[in-house]
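Dear colleagues,

For the upcoming journal club I promised to circulate an example of a predicted protein-ligand complex. I picked one with calcium ion because it came up in last month's discussion. The inputs are reproduced below in full, followed by the predicted structure.
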Amino acid sequence: MKRMFRYLGLCLLALCACVQADAARRVILDTDIDSDVDDAGALAMLLNLHARGVVDLRGIVVTSDDTYAALCTQAICTFYGYPDMPIGVNVHQANMRNHSRYTRQIAEEFPRAAGAWTDFEEAASLYRRLLAESPDSSVTVLTIGHLSSLRDLLRSAPDGHSPLTGVQLAGRKVSRWLCMGGRFPEGKEANFYRPDPEATLYCLDNWPGRAVFSGWEIGREVRSGGPYLKRRFPDRHPVRRAYELYNRFAGRASWDQTAVLLLTDRADDFFGYRSAGRCVVMPDGSNRWEEGPEGCHSCLVFREGADRDRAARLIDRLIAGDRRTLRRIGPAEEPVR
Ligand SMILES: [Ca+2]
């Protein structure tokens, strides 16, 4: 009898794992992991959520002019047990150089397969391949950097991966674009205006589906990356190293990590949406929220009384891979406004 209960228990666990795997949304991350440490934190969150089956991270597009950004990304993925995670690079970046406080050190101190940033697939090609092999409306694109690679996808022509243009492919395969970018209700934010405001304009004009914007004012109020991470990470860990080299765990705004929270069922604890309208971008990359009829754009706001410190604690635990927190978290329900 005992043996039968154990068998039934194992079957139930397996069934739950299958249900969770099915529920996981496919995600393509597009990151400028270089000048700030929040990209490293966001990547750690995503890899932990991926391991738990909350998201299905299909690949990472590195949109950066830092020579070591993609190598650092591969070293982090390798450390987490994903040495073959598809990684793409934006080959159109001008003046590649090492300007990050942590990418070179991580790339040199931790194992990875690639020898140079030129060894990786071209960003738009990776986007096209990952989208082409995915079911319709199954992919969430999460951008936490500037939009040069997404623009290159939208401009892309039919190729060996798909007979569809980039706009057609995104329209068919992507259910929503989550974008950390802009400043609301109006202002200027780095992902939109630096270094490629033309890419922002192009993406806003041509994106064929739903887009959710998490502006600068959201992440600014959530401070993560402090002493908790220093205590929780083992001594030798690439993301620990990123935070150590960046500012020695002095804490930092969570622009990119708050956008990752949108992939989980905890987003509703903290965030709601601005009244209907659309994000309008100027040629200099500044932007504003223009109220109007319900359309394809949504813009995040904090819920009344949302606890920013609790959001920061949740982010820190997801970065550190806290098992209890990860056991209790689930995927976001779609569609989200
Ligand atoms: Ca970023």
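Two points we might discuss: The CA atoms of residues 233 and 320 lie 6 Å apart. The longest helix spans residues 2-23.

See you all on Thursday,
B. R.
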